[in-house]
Write a structure and sequence with these properties.
The protein is α+β, with helices and mostly antiparallel strands and 182 residues long. The protein has a single domain, classed as Histidine kinase-like ATPase, C-terminal domain (Heat Shock Protein 90), CATH 3.30.565.10. The chain contains 6 helices and 5 strands. A 5-stranded antiparallel β-sheet has the order 1-2-3-5-4, sandwiched between helices. Strand 2 and strand 3 form a beta hairpin. The longest helix is centred in the middle third of the chain and has 27 residues. The radius of gyration is 17 Å and the shape is globular. The two termini are 33 Å apart.
Length: 182
C-alpha cells in the first residue's frame, strides 16, 4: 500500500464511523487487546454500561467463533492458507453499534451456518429465549462439542435481525461475514 492511500482509508473510516478494524490472525491476546480498546473508548464516550457489555460480548463471541473455526480446520490438517485469519469491524451506525466479522470458510460450512442463521432470523425475542433454553438442556455431545449458544445469544442481544453474507471465492471456499447491530 502506498503511504498516500492511508488518508483515503482514514476518510472512509471517519465517514462510516468505524471505531476499530482488524484484519489478521485472531489470537487470544489480539481479541483481548481489541476488546479492551473498544470497551475503553466506549466508556470514555459515556455510553450506557449495558450497551458496552452487549457490544463487547458480541465482539468476543464473533472473534472467538472465527478463532475456533480456524483452529478446528488447522487441527484437521486442512493446511489451506485461505483459512488463516479473519476481519472484524466495529462501527457506530445511527443509534446502534455494529459488529461485523468475517473469514474464509469451506463452502459447505457456510451453507450450514447460513441455514442456522435463517432459522434464528425468523424468531422473535420469545422464540429466541425458548430456543436458547432448549439448547442449554442439550448434552454437549449433541451440540458438536460446544454449547451452541453463541449465535442465539447474539441474536438475543441484537437490535435488528442478524445479517450475513456469503461471497463465493471458488468451488471450495467462501468468505462468510456476520453483521450484528446492538
Amino acid at each position: 500500500m502506498q503511504a498516500s492511500h492511508l488518508f483515503d482509508i482514514r476518510e472512509t473510516f471517519n465517514r462510516q464511523q468505524i471505531l476499530i478494524c482488524f484484519n489478521g490472525p485472531f489470537s487470544r491476546s489480539i481479541i483481548e487487546e481489541l476488546g479492551n480498546a473498544v470497551r475503553s473508548y466506549m466508556e470514555s464516550q459515556s455510553i450506557a454500561k449495558t450497551a458496552i457489555l452487549d457490544v463487547f460480548s458480541v465482539f468476543v463471541e464473533q472473534t472467538q467463533n472465527v478463532r475456533n473455526y480456524l483452529a478446528d480446520k488447522a487441527a484437521e490438517g486442512n493446511g489451506a492458507s485461505e483459512l488463516d485469519s479473519g476481519t472484524v469491524v466495529i462501527a457506530r451506525q445511527d443509534d446502534h453499534y455494529v459488529v461485523t466479522c468475517g473469514n474464509v470458510v469451506e463452502a459447505a460450512d457456510a451453507a450450514g451456518l447460513a441455514a442456522r442463521l435463517d432459522v434464528l432470523s425468523g424468531l422473535d425475542k420469545a422464540g429466541l429465549r425458548a430456543i436458547y433454553k432448549e439448547q442449554m438442556r442439550k448434552p454437549r455431545s449433541e451440540t458438536g462439542g460446544s454449547a451452541g449458544l453463541g449465535l442465539i445469544d447474539m441474536a438475543r442481544k441484537a437490535s435488528a435481525p442478524l445479517e450475513y453474507s456469503v461471497h463465493a471465492i471458488d468451488d471450495r471456499f467462501a468468505f462468510f461475514s456476520l453483521r450484528v447491530a446492538v
